[in-house]
Design brief:
- By secondary structure, this protein is of the alpha+beta class.
- The chain has 2 domains: 51 residues; 152 residues, Sandwich (Immunoglobulin-like), CATH 2.60.40.
- 34% of the residues lie in helices and 27% in strands.
- The protein is built from 5 helices and 14 strands.
- The strands form 5 sheets. Strands 4, 5, 6, 8 and 10 form a 5-stranded antiparallel beta sheet that branches.
- Strand 11 and strand 12 form a beta hairpin.
- Helix 2 crosses helix 3.
- The N and C termini lie far apart (173 Å).
- The relative contact order is 0.13.
Length: 270
């Protein structure tokens, strides 16, 4: 009924007394009605799509790794000026914030070339993580992955190096360059997660303190690295110097005895 009325200009002419004005007015009303109907359907479609479409999660924030480059010993602080440290992402990470009944945490997917080194990272003790870091560092060296990493050199006066703008993941930090003044220091590679779950909250800016150790005996706390000092032959075998001293002692003793014997003989003859 409505469609037939809206489409019939003759009906409009008869209904409103005829004439071009009546037809023009009717056509304008018809266009307005159709536009309103289409607008209503469009709004309904958008509302339906908004309800049905899944909610898109907000992008995870970028993180950073701040690395200490100062070794402490009994003499004070030693900055590793001139050394180079390289950062490589060995796994991507999916962060779960605890919504939808899930537990808060981070799930890792190992990057290409590191899949066979995967672990249940959340359950590892600190010593196991350190061992895994050494293993991954060697694998990265062998595969040339460190060449594609992000490297920074320690400048004069610096106490920390900061790698920023990092996506969520598991990162390996390796000392890839050593200045001459720092060759007496060893530094273990480090594995660090971005983010880290601390007291139920995610920390995307992570501080790392590598393990530094002096490898030379001239520094307090040094582990005595380097060549073992020459201690000579075992104590129960005399050296050449011991033989010479022994011979001299025997000659002196023999001479003293000869003198005593000669004196006794002269006394008897007298």
């Amino acid at each position: 009924m409505m469609a037939s009325i809206c489409d019939n200009d003759t009906w409009a002419s008869r209904r409103f007394g005829g004439g071009a004005f009546a037809v023009t007015w009717f056509r304008a009303v018809r266009r307005t009605c159709l536009a309103l109907v289409l607008a209503v359907f469009a709004c309904a479609g958008m509302l339906t799509a908004a309800v049905v479409a899944p909610q898109v999660a907000a992008a995870a924030p970028r993180g950073s790794v701040s690395l200490s480059v100062v070794a402490e010993d009994a003499r004070g602080s030693h900055r590793l000026v001139g050394d180079t440290f390289t950062l490589v992402r060995v796994a991507t990470a999916q962060v779960y914030d605890g919504g939808n009944g899930q537990s808060a945490g981070v799930a890792y997917t190992m990057a290409a070339g590191f899949a066979r080194y995967d672990r249940d990272w959340a359950s590892l003790a600190a010593s196991d993580v350190a061992a895994a870091a050494r293993e991954l560092a060697q694998a990265a060296r062998d595969a040339g992955s460190l060449d594609a990493g992000v490297s920074q050199r320690v400048s004069e006066g610096a106490r920390r190096l900061t790698f920023s703008g990092l996506d969520s993941g598991l990162y390996l930090v390796v000392r890839t360059g050593v200045a001459d003044a720092n060759k007496g220091l060893t530094c273990d590679p480090v594995l660090v997660s971005v983010p880290q779950l601390e007291d139920g909250a995610f920390a995307y800016d992570v501080d790392v303190d590598p393990k530094f150790e002096w490898a030379d005996v001239d520094h307090p706390g040094g582990n005595g690295g380097g060549a073992e000092p020459d201690r000579g032959t075992p104590g129960w075998l005399p050296t050449t110097g011991d033989y010479v001293i022994g011979v001299v002692c025997l000659l002196v003793a023999g001479g003293s005895i000869a003198v005593l014997i000669g004196r006794r003989l002269r006394e008897k003859r007298a």
